[in-house]
Each structure stands twice: as C-alpha cells, then as structure tokens.
Automatic annotation (TrEMBL), chain A:
Family as reported in the entry's similarity comment: Belongs to the ABC transporter superfamily.
UniProt protein name: ABC transporter ATP-binding protein
UniProt function note: Involved in beta-(1-->2)glucan export. Transmembrane domains (TMD) form a pore in the inner membrane and the ATP-binding domain (NBD) is responsible for energy generation.
Alphabetical list of SUPFAM superfamilies matching this protein: P-loop containing nucleoside triphosphate hydrolases (SSF52540)
Species, as recorded: Bradyrhizobium lablabi
A molecular function GO annotation: ATP hydrolysis activity
Membrane-crossing residue ranges in chain numbering: none
UniProtKB keywords: ATP-binding, Nucleotide-binding, Transport
Topological relation to the membrane, as annotated: Peripheral membrane protein
Taxonomic classification: Bacteria, Pseudomonadati, Pseudomonadota, Alphaproteobacteria, Hyphomicrobiales
Annotated Gene Ontology cellular component terms: plasma membrane
From TrEMBL, chain B:
UniProt name for this protein: Peptide ABC transporter substrate-binding protein
Species assigned in the record: Bradyrhizobium lablabi
Keyword Lyase: no
Taxonomic lineage: Bacteria, Pseudomonadati, Pseudomonadota, Alphaproteobacteria, Hyphomicrobiales
Annotated ranges, domain ABC transporter: 5-251
Keywords: ATP-binding, Cell membrane, Membrane, Nucleotide-binding, Transport
Purpose of the protein: Involved in beta-(1-->2)glucan export. Transmembrane domains (TMD) form a pore in the inner membrane and the ATP-binding domain (NBD) is responsible for energy generation.
InterPro entries per UniProt: AAA+_ATPase (IPR003593), ABC_Ni/Peptide_Import (IPR050388), ABC_transporter-like_ATP-bd (IPR003439), Oligopep_ABC_C (IPR013563), P-loop_NTPase (IPR027417)
Amino acid sequence: MTAAIEVQNLRCEFRVRTGVMSQEKRVIAVDNVTFSVPAGSVLGVVGESGCGKSTLARLILGLLKPTAGTVLVDGRSLFDLDRKARARLIQPVFQDPFASLNPRRRIKDIVALPLAAQGTFSRGEIERRVGGILERVGLSAAMGERMPAQLSGGQRQRAAIARALVLEPRIVICDEPTSALDVSVQAQILNLLADLRRDLGLTYLFISHNLAVVEHVASEVAVMYLGRFVERNETDALFRTPRHPYTKALLESVLTPEPGKGVPDIGLGDTMPDPSNIPPGCRFNPRCRIAVERCRHETPTPMVRPPAGMVECHLA
Amino acid sequence: MSTLLEIEGLEVTFGRTAAVRGASFRVERGETHCLVGESGCGKSVSALAVMSLLARGGQRSAKKMSFAGTDLTSLSDREMARIRGNRMAMIFQEPMTSLNPAFTIGSQMAEVMTRHKGGSRAAALDRAAELMARVGITAPGMRLGQFPHQLSGGLRQRVMIAMALMCDPELLIADEPTTALDVTVQAQILRLLAGLKRELGLSILLITHDLGIVARVADHVSVMYAGEVVERAPTAELFRAPQHPYTRGLLSCVPVPGRVQRDRPLGSIPGVVPAIGAGFAGCAFRSRCGHADETCTRAIPRRQAGDAHDYLCRLEPDWAEPQPA
Ligand SMILES: Nc1ncnc2c1ncn2[C@@H]1O[C@H](COP(=O)(O)OP(=O)(O)OP(=O)(O)O)[C@@H](O)[C@H]1O
Ligand SMILES: Nc1ncnc2c1ncn2[C@@H]1O[C@H](COP(=O)(O)OP(=O)(O)OP(=O)(O)O)[C@@H](O)[C@H]1O
Ligand code: SF4
Ligand code: SF4
Ligand SMILES: [Mg+2]
Ligand SMILES: [Mg+2]
C-alpha cells in the first residue's frame, strides 16, 4: 500500500531571542522524526503541550520549512504542487478556530472559499456543497449568514471543519479538531469524520489531547515527547499495554467521570520539559519514575517490540 | 458558607438571538462551581455578562446579579473596570483573543498588576515569573520576553492562567481553561487551582464540557441548555441521580479510554439546538427529547429533586426510563 504521508528524519528548530542583550536560544520542536501513514488510515498523535505536535502538522502541510529531513504527501513534495492541487490533496483543521477564520467574512463565504478558489465549480454547485457540509457539521443555514464573532467557540470549530472538508481532500490534518466541543457535538463530528473516511477513503493525522477520542478514531497512535515519537503502536495495543513510562503517565492522568476521586498526582513533578534545553541521555529521565543511571547519559534508540510497535526506552 | 456570586434570571440578547434566557446560578465562597452544557448554550456569554464584557450588540438584563454583596447591575463602567481583572478575573476560552500580539508576555502580565495595584514594573515582572513557574512554565525568564505567537497553545493557556492570578482575585472565572492542554498538564493545572482554592479561599466558576473534570473538581454543577440552567445539583448527586433528560443524555455519551467500542459510532444526542427567538415558549429540548408531549410546549415547572438539586422538566423526580419491551 502507498503511504499517504511519508516523513523521514524530520527536524525543525526555532531560534528565539529572549531579550536585547541575551543570547539566542535554539528551540528544537521536532527532533529527527521518521514515520509513515498508510493511505486510508488514521495516525493519532498525543503528547504533552508544547512537545511539537502542531509544528509537525505545519511541516506536513508545507506551511513551515523543515530544518532537515523530508516530507512526502501522496509520494510528492508539497513544495512541487500548485496551491489548487495542494488544496484538493490536503487540508488542515486547526486548534484555534478564532485565529483561523477571517473575522470579516460570513461563515458560508469562509466555507465556500476553497471551492471558489478552484475556479471549476459553478455558483449553484458551490451553494449546494456549502449547504450540505454545514448541515453535516451541525450548523443551520442561519448560522452560515453570521460572522465568526457571532458564533460560540464550538460553532466556530464546526465551521473550520466544514471549510476543511468541503473540497473532500484526500488527507486531513486535524489539530485538536474537537477539543472546543461538548461530548455530544464532538461525537457527531467524529462520527462524520469516520463516515467520510469510510466513504471516501480519507487519511487523517489526528492530534488530540482526548485519549478516548484518539482510541476511537485512530488505527495507530504515536506518543510524542519533547519533539520525538517515544512510542508508537496499533491503537488497541497501545491502550492495553503501554510500554513507555510517559505513555503510562498519560493514561493514568485521564479524568474519568467518577465524582469524589479528585485529580490524581501522577508523579511527573511540577516542572515542564524545556525544548530549548533537552536533557542528555533519555529526554524523559528528569521526570521518569523508574529512571536508572544509564538513562542519564545514554540515549535510547527506537526499538521494535513484537508483535508490532516501537518504543524508545532502555527498560521497556 | 456564604454566597460570593449570585445570578438570577440573567437574559442576554444579540438582536433577535436570545443567547441566555433566564439563567440562574450561584457560586459560594471557596467553592468550585461548574457550568456545563452543549456548545452554543450560552456558557461563555453568561460569564462575559457577569464581567460586563459582552460584545457590541449584546443586551443584558437580570433580576439579580450580585458579587460579594455589590449589585453589579448598578455599577458604572469605571467601577466595574476596577473590579475586573482585580477582584474578579477571567481566563478566556480563546487565549489569542485576549493576548495582544504586539506586546511581550512579560509586559502584558506586568501591566495588569501595575494598573490595579500600582508598584514597580520590576516587582510586577517578578510576580509574573513566580506565577508562571507555579503554573508549570519552565524558563519563565525566556517566556516573559516572547510574543504570544511564539508559544504553543498549551503554553499560552498557562500564561492566561498566571495572568488571571496576578492580582489575587476572589473569584476566578475560567472558560475552558484546560481544553488546549494535554491530560498530564491538565491534571497539574487542576491541582494548582484546587490548591489556590484551599490556601487562598479562591472561588472558581469553571466552564467546561469535560464531564471528567466536572466530576473530579466541582462542588456544585449547573447544566445549561439553550440559554437556560436546566439542572443544578451537588456534583455527586448529579452523577448519581441526574434528572433532566438532557443531563442524562449528556452523561451517557462520555467516552472513557479503555472502554471505547471502536467499531460503533460514539454516542450522541441526536439533533441540534434549535434557533430560539423572542416569544419561544415551553421546553427548548423538546425537539430532541424522547419524552416530549404536548405539555412540553407550555411553561415548564422547576422541580426539586433534593435540598440543592432542582431541574426544569415536566417529569417527576426519579422518573424511570421506559424499559424496552
Ligand atoms: N514560531 C515559533 N517561534 C519560536 N518557537 C516556536 C514557534 N512555534 C512553536 N515554537 C515552540 O516550539 C515548541 C513546540 O510547539 P508546538 O506548537 O508544536 O507544540 P504542541 O505540541 O502543538 O503543543 P500544544 O499541545 O500546547 O498545542 C514550543 O516550545 C513552542 O514554544
Ligand atoms: N457577538 C455575538 N453576536 C450574536 N450571537 C452571539 C454572539 N456571541 C455569542 N452568540 C450566540 O450566543 C449563543 C451562546 O454563545 P456562547 O459563546 O455563550 O456559547 P457557549 O455555551 O460558550 O458554547 P461553546 O461551548 O461552544 O463555547 C450562541 O448561539 C452564539 O452563536
Ligand atoms: S530510558 Fe530510562 S528515563 Fe527514559 S523512559 Fe526509559 S526508564 Fe525512563
Ligand atoms: S419538559 Fe418535556 S421535552 Fe423538556 S426535557 Fe422534560 S420531557 Fe423532555
Ligand atoms: Mg498545538
Ligand atoms: Mg464558550
């Protein structure tokens, strides 16, 4: 099977200056990542805030030039495609719907834009498709007449999803597509994404903090920590037998709806990792509950663990 | 316990749209009160109405709106501005709308403090760095010098939380404060808020659609639907004995990792919230409710299901779901 997304040794650095006099720092947001996503499947990406998920999404979308490494989408570099072809191939749904919707246009015009930009659809066809997709994401025709500021957070997110799907692209990069939605609307959107995948054979890269959602939609899950994939496996296997200590901590942090249980302290400490200062050895070692001496100077390499899956940990 | 914030019969309209329709809830001192409900039901607008921060075109009225004994409806803009950001602070749902892209994080945080409390900019920056460390931001010195677009979504959200705490508010209104965060950071932030509540007696009005969070941190819960509070209850009671059909529907569609059935669609409440204009009567949930009958088009009684537990529905308390034959 051909890979819809093929990523090789991808690296992305940002240089930030913290003050007039101070030194420039290098933030390594994505650190030498390699993976592929087979056509028609869903790769779920989970990981700590700031670990590089959105940066990875922007690299795949060709919105950001990598410092090193390559990204192939449907076997080609996006930099070789014109904008129209690119738009039919791959579309994003971003985390912050407010920032990604033009505040001066009506919702239905925002959703129509990708169709209009193709220059091949008649006005009637555009209207029909826009109406159809708005309905599928649960927005009434009256909502389509409004400006973004006149919608609630969740309604705006649905508009962003409608805009991404209206062209029926082959690949959709979803960055927290449903985190602004309540459970019922979230379920409606995820069921829609699942239907479209089945009907049209779409491929998704699906970034989310909601592990139950990822478990439901993903065929495979990658766990990202400080710019690297530290574990990857088929969804069921990852949830049933997490191997990396960070994956285990993630799963333990989920708040199930059980009153009186409080919020667990999962023992990761109170400081966050700093991508401008990645620790030597295993990058997780300062927070790892089971770290041994070796973890402080020797970097673990990706190891395949039968029957499938990959993990970067000396003890897994 | 005494009441810090009491809202009764809050109405907000935008032109012909009724965004909030007679919502009532109260936040006791030192408690965490959660506001939950369907996307678009009026949670953010209610919070913004309390803060007097409604967008242009928003009209507010209320039978009662009191904060620490002060009638909020009687305050002038200047008096309200002195309370806002100071005794009552808000974390907004979209951090980018409340952070100014043209200024560094440090200067925005310092400004909040010097405006309300005076003092030097250096002292304000120290406090900013201290609070950033408390919300789990490493290298606060570096982050203070950065601009909002240089931070990840989660970092921005933590900056917003630290900024809201600059002036030691009595009431913190937090609109979806952790939706942009991963679960480990979420747990950390919620523990932080619980600590502030315990140590400083902070009261929190928490808006969220994550029922896992509600269960773990709320003392009381108000469930909103189409601009109304349709059920109010102490947290344990709401989860044990939900009364309103909407609440029951909502609780039944929460997915839990490890218990997800992958080959089935996720559970949801069919249909969408109807557009509600002036003159709407009866129960707004009736187009989606399996128990609706003709009485649901008339005025709906508020029923008592326990001491602090009431709901808005024609059905008697502890009504039973009909068993499939
Ligand atoms: N334009 C930029 N300039 C400087 N640093 C940046 C820039 N964009 C991202 N970064 C940094 O790169 C790191 C990764 O950011 P990214 O947005 O990819 O994280 P993320 O995993 O999406 O986090 P979240 O879950 O919080 O959205 C962060 O430390 C962030 O501050
Ligand atoms: N400026 C505005 N002009 C017109 N209508 C508005 C405006 N702001 C909000 N609304 C409408 O008011 C209703 C309530 O919006 P609100 O933002 O309070 O929803 P919410 O409960 O916070 O939802 P979410 O969970 O999606 O954030 C929505 O139907 C929304 O479309
Ligand atoms: S390599 Fe060592 S520090 Fe890293 S995750 Fe494994 S046990 Fe923990
Ligand atoms: S009042 Fe009627 S329509 Fe409304 S929730 Fe109760 S039974 Fe359903
Ligand atoms: Mg992100
Ligand atoms: Mg809202």
